[in-house]
Amino acid sequence: MALLDIRNLTVKIKTDEGIITIVDRISLTINAGKILALAGASGSGKSLVMQAIMMLRKDNVIYYADRFKLDETDLLKLSSHQRRRIIGENTSFVMQEPKRSLDPSLKIKAQLYEVMPKIKWYRFFTRIKNFIKNTKKQTAVALLHRSGIKDHRKIMNSYPSQLSDVECQKVMIAMAVASEPKILLLDEPIVNLEIASRFQVLKLLDKYSKNDHTAIIIISNDIASIYNFADEFAFMYAGQIVERGSRDQIFKNPRHPYTASLIRSMMALSDPGQNKKFIPVLKGKHPDYKHMPIGCRFGARCRYAKRICNKMPDITMSKNCQYRCHFPLPDGALNSDD
Amino acid sequence: MISSTETIISVSNLCYRNPSSWFTRMFRSDFILKNITFSLQDGESLAIIGEEKSGKSELISAIAGLITPTKGLILYNGQTYENNRQMRAQNFRMIFQDQETALNRKLRIIDILQIPLLINTSMTESERKERIYDTLNLVDLPNSIAKRYPQELSYGQMKRISFARALILNPKVILANKSISSFDPNLRAHICNMMLRLQKERRISTIITTSDLEIARKISDKLLVLCKGEVVEFGDTRKILNNPQNEITQRLLRNYNNEYRYKFKPEKE
User: Fold this and answer.
1) Which residue range(s) make up the domain with B229?
2) Does residue B263 lie in a domain region?
3) Strands A18-30 and A4-15
4) DSSP assignment of B4-20
5) Which helix (H) or strand (E) holds B118?
6) A265 closest CB neighbour out of B182, B189, B264
7) For residue A150, what are the contacts with CB-CB under 8 A and spacing of at least 6?
8) Does residue B181 have a pLDDT over 80?
9) Which of A19, A171, A200, B147 has its C-alpha lying 20 to 30 A from A313's C-alpha?
C-alpha cells in the first residue's frame, strides 16, 4: 500500500489574462522509506507540485485531483480544515533558499522550540516532569545533533544571518524532522552549496530515510549529484511528467527523447576524456504556458516528431517505467550517436 | 608584436580584510585573502574552487574592481587599473550569480544593453543598434528579443542576456561568479558551449568560481584552489584534477566524487 497516492493532480492559476493550466494531470505514488527525485527544466512546474501537496497557496490557485490518499485516509472527502491538519501532522516541507525561509529576527533556539510538537493539556504529569528536567532544551539539542550539528551551543544562540548556508540548511532539516513526519518534501536542497556540504546534506537525508522509514520527495536539477541517492526518478516537462521509473531502467534505456537529451548532456559533462570540446545540446526553448502547442508538448523540439504528434500521447505503462510518447526510443539508443 | 605568451593579468601579494573599526582590528586581524600571487597568459581561462568561506567571491570581486584590496597589486597588461575606471569597465565585465535580480525589470532588453555603450563609448544610435544585434547573435538569441522585458524571458535567456551585457564592449576578460550552477544539464551544457566558443573565437579569458568540478574541467585551462584565503594549488586543470598533490585538493575531490554521484564509465565496444 502506497503511503502517498495522488492521481491526476491539476493546478490552475488565475491571472489577468484568464486561467492558465500549469501542472497537468500528474500522478505520483511513494512508499515508506523510498526516495523519489523530480527533475526537469526550470519553469516546468516542479515546485508547484510540492506546494499543491502541502496546499500552501490559497488565493488565485485552483487544485483538482481524482485521488489524494495519505496512508489510507482519503483526503478529498474531508473538509479543507481537517485536510490541512492531517497534512500538517504527517508531512514537512523544506523550501528553497534556507537563509530566506528562516525568520531573521529570532534566534535559532526560539524557532526550534516553536516547531517542536506540544504535549496535550491532559497529560499534566508529563508536563510537570518535563518542566523539572528541562526536556525542551534537551530535545532541541538532540534534534540538532541528529542533523549533524556538533557545536549546538553556538548555533542555538545565533541569528540566521550569522550562520552559513549549510548550517541554515541543516537547521531547516532539523526543524522539518522535529514532528517526525512520514513524508519529507525538499525543494532544491543542495543547490548553491559547496562541494563538501552537498555530500553532508545528502548523507543526512539518506540516514533519515533508512532509519526512520521517511518517504522523501526531492526536487533537484543536478541529476548527476543525486544519481545514487534516489530510488526513483520522474522527469517533468511543461507541467507533465514525461517519464518516470526506477534509476537503472531510466539511465540505461530512457524512452522519452527529452529524458535522453538530459542524460546525454549529463554524461558528456562528466566525461573526463573530452575536455574543452563542444557538447551536443538540445535546441529550441521551453514552451510558454499561455500558448501551449497542440498535442505533444515536446513536439517542437523533438527530432522524431511526425504527424501523429499533433495528438497528446497517453501514458504508456511498462514493467518498471511509464512514459508519455508516441515513438519511444529503443533499447541502447543512448549510446548510438545520431 | 603581440605574442601568444603575453601575461594578461598578474596578481601579486593580494591581501584583503573586511573594512572594520580600529577597535576590532586591534584584537583580531583575520584576513579574508592572504598573499595571493598568480598570473594568467593571454587567452587562458581560470577556474577558482575551494571550500566554504575560502574567499572565492572576494578574490573575483577584487579582480573585477568591486572591492578595493587592502594590500597588493593587480596588473592588467603590466599596468594597474585602480584609477583608470574607463579601462577597467571596458575590459573586465562581471556576470552575477542571480540572473533575475541582475537585470532591471523596468527596462527593455535593448536599453539594458545600451547603457554600457552610452557610458563608455561615443557611438551613434545606428552603430549602437548594430552592435547590440551582433552581440545578441553571438549568444544565440533572436533580434526580436530586444523589444521585450526581462521578466518575459526564461531563465536561460536571462542568463544569456547578462552574457550579452558583459560582451557588448568587446572585453578581454569575463568574470562569472557561480553562474552555471542551479541549471538543468541541458542548459549547463549550452552555457559551457557558449563560454568555449567565446574562448576559441574571440580569445576572451574567462574567470569563474564554481563548486562543480566537472564544469571547471570542461571550460578552464588553469585551476586555483583556495583554502582560508590562501592559494593551496595553482596549475594546469587536468594535471591537478587527475593527480592532486595537496591534502585539501584531495579532500575536495574525494567529497565531490562521493558515493551518491554519477560516475562516468566509458563504453567498451
Assistant:
1) 7-256
2) no
3) antiparallel
4) TT-EEEEEEEEEE----
5) helix B109-120
6) B189
7) none
8) no
9) A19
The ipTM estimated for the assembled molecules is 0.87
Query: Would you say residue B238 lies in a domain?
Result: yes
Cα–Cα nearest to B34, from B61, B57, B13, B19: B13
> Residue A317: in which H helix or E strand, if any?
strand A316-317
Task: Determine, yes or no, domain membership for B267.
Answer: no
Q: What is the mean pLDDT of chain B?
A: 87
The C-alpha cell of A112 is what?
A: 526550534
Q: How many domains does chain B have?
A: 1
**CATH number of the domain within which B26 lies:** 3.40.50.300
pLDDT for A98 equals: 86
Asked if residue B31 has pLDDT above 50, the reply is yes
Which pLDDT value is given to residue A97?
A: 84
- Coil vs helix vs strand at A125: helix
CB contact under 8 A, A192 and B183: no
Report helix, strand or coil for B222.
strand
Nearest of A7, A15, A8, A5 to residue A61 by alpha carbon:
A15
List the grid coordinates of A166: 549549510
Domains and CATH numbers, chain A: 4-101+180-230 (3.40.50.300)
pLDDT in tens, A37-55: 999 888 888 888 998 998 8
The pairing of beta strand A91-94 with beta strand A61-64? unpaired
Judging by DSSP bridges, how do beta strands A215-219 and A35-40 pair with one another? parallel
Q: What is the pLDDT of residues B46-77, one digit of tens each?
A: 999 988 888 888 899 999 888 888 888 888 88
* Residue A315 identity (one-letter amino acid): I
Q: With H, G, I as helix, E, B as strand and everything else as coil, classify residue A277.
A: coil
- Beta-strand ranges (E) seen in chain B are 7-16, 33-41, 46-50, 71-76, 79-80, 92-95, 173-177, 205-209, 222-227, 230-236
Residue B248 inside a domain? The answer is yes
Strands B92-95 and B173-177: parallel
Residue B4 has pLDDT above 60, yes or no: no
Interior CA angle at B206 toward B17 and B184, to 5°? Answer: 100
* Among A229, A173, A220, A230, residue whose Cα is nearest residue A192: A220
The reported pLDDT for the residue numbered B2 is 47
Which of the residues in chain A have pLDDT under 70?
336-338
- pLDDT of amino acid B131: 93
**Cβ neighbours of B52 in A, within 8 Å:** 164-166, 194, 196-197
Residues 220-259 in A contacting B (C-alpha not used; CB under 8 Å): 221-229
